[in-house]
Amino acid sequence: MSRKERENMIRYIEMVRGMEKHTLSHMTDQDIEHIYETTYMYHENE
User: Fold this and answer.
1) pTM of the prediction?
2) What is the Cα–Cα distance from 45 to 20, expressed in whole angstroms?
3) Is the per-residue pLDDT at 45 higher than 90?
4) 22 burial class (0-12, 13-18, 19+ CB within 10 angstroms)?
């Protein structure tokens, strides 16, 4: 994943889930992708 993709995913997760950037910055790319995909799918199905 590119740096820009990661930044965009983190920004989306922060806005939608209210998680702090500090917490997310310590996670792996795979963790970020999983949280992003889970959050995105949840909101798409509402």
Assistant:
1) 0.85
2) 24
3) no
4) exposed
Better-scored residue on pLDDT, 43 or 14: 14
38-45 CB contacts, 8 Å cutoff, 24+ apart: 39/12, 39/13, 40/12, 43/16
Round to whole Å and give the CA distance between 33 and 43.
15
3-state secondary structure of 1: coil
Specify whether the CB–CB gap between 6 and 32 falls below 8 A.
yes
Dihedral angle, C-alpha 39, 42, 44, 46, nearest 10 °: -140
